[in-house]
Design goal:
Length: 196
């Protein structure tokens, strides 16, 4: 499995935003929506071997995490609006303090924080921190079940990074330029495809 964890530093944890305004009114939810599209879509298929965790840290009911599972996903389309709608539908669910609630096939919501997500994935795969100053991806051997961690339009906070570094993740760089989060995901998926 390929896991992607994206920290949505201002992304709304409540459904009170307009689908026409996910860039401004929903705390740059557009960045996270593009990450979902980039992680799953091939030209004529969906990557079933991928899971995406969007950690929503903005708004009045944070934190919440929306998880997309490629094995089960349905109703995912390439346009941003319909993916934002899947997230908003998840946010409309009543979420208990523990555990996940399924909002549609392959879409789950929980009250997990970034630290909780990291803990939940600790036995499932090996952490890989995407960072501009890391080892070149082309000198890196991907582990079997990588857990990629990256920021949204901002880097991880100092606290998030310090927490992540306690687990001694691999740290890899994707190239000489700083990329958008969704572009990083496309590059990583492609590098993994090539390595397989
Ligand atoms: C849009 S960037 C965040 C801001 C960016 N660091 C800047 O200075 O403009 C989003 C995330 O993508 C990842 N990232 C961007 N470029 C990268 C690169 N060349 N190699 C590895 N990760 C990268 C990092 O995790 C970063 O936090």
């Amino acid at each position: 499995m390929r896991y992607f964890v994206i920290t949505g530093h201002r992304a709304y944890s409540t459904p009170d935003f307009k689908l026409d305004d996910i860039c401004g009114g929903a705390g740059r939810l557009d960045v996270l929506v593009r990450c979902v599209t980039s992680a799953f879509f091939l030209s004529h298929d969906i990557r079933r071997d991928t899971q995406v965790y969007l950690v929503l840290q903005g708004g009045s009911d944070a934190p919440k995490t929306v998880r997309f599972s490629g094995e089960e996903i349905r109703y995912l389309n390439p346009d941003e609006r319909s993916t934002a709608s899947l997230i908003r539908n998840a946010l409309l669910k009543k979420v208990p303090p523990e555990g996940e609630v399924r909002s549609s096939p392959g879409v789950y919501i929980s009250r997990m924080s970034f630290e909780d997500v990291m803990a939940s994935l600790s036995g499932k795969g090996e952490l890989v921190y995407l960072k501009e100053d890391g080892t070149d991806v082309r000198d890196f051997s991907f582990p079997e079940d990588p857990v990629f961690v990256l920021g949204d339009d901002r880097d991880l906070t100092e606290e998030e990074e310090a927490f992540l570094l306690e687990s001694s993740p691999a740290r890899i760089c994707l190239g000489p330029r700083s990329l958008h989060a969704n572009q990083c995901i496309v590059v990583v998926q492609n590098e993994m495809d090539r390595a397989e």
